[in-house]
Amino acid sequence: MEPYSADDIKRQKRRDIFGLPGTSYRFQLVLINDKWVIRLLKGKEAIDSRVFQEEDMTVTGFPNQELIANWVLRTVALPNITPHLIMKTVQGMTKQIRENIDERDDK
After folding, report:
1. Which residue has the higher pLDDT, 61 or 72?
2. CA torsion angle for 32, 19, 76, 99 (degrees, to 10)?
3. Structural domain spans, the chain
């Protein structure tokens, strides 16, 4: 898979917010000033965020999914949240972002 360039990612217009099933928590992955940032939301309020550094990136230009899932697990200390549930949500989120970028490139 070819890495996404910063220009590809900047064209990402849709700012999807992904919910954690069974909770009121949601998270959003966005590109701000050429850095990927994840925000954790409860309701409409952002309760925490993390800026991913260059060493956190994969070859495709996105933050490492395991780092995202681990950060969410540490930040949301709920007993009914499992690593598997968070990882499936993170995988769905990154897949959707990639599809949105690829879809715009095809137009």
Report:
1. 72
2. -50
3. 6-101
Global pTM? 0.77
pLDDT for residue 46 is more than 50: yes
Mean pLDDT over the full length of the chain = 81
| CATH numeric code, 6-101 | 3.10.20
pLDDT over 70 (residue 6): no
Rounded distance between C-alpha atoms, residue 45 and residue 43, angstroms: 6
Integer CA distances (angstroms), 20 to 25, 55, 66, 68, 80, in order: 6, 26, 16, 13, 11
What 83-88 contacts at long range (C-beta under 8 Å, 24+ apart), as own/partner pairs, is 85/20, 85/21, 85/22, 86/20
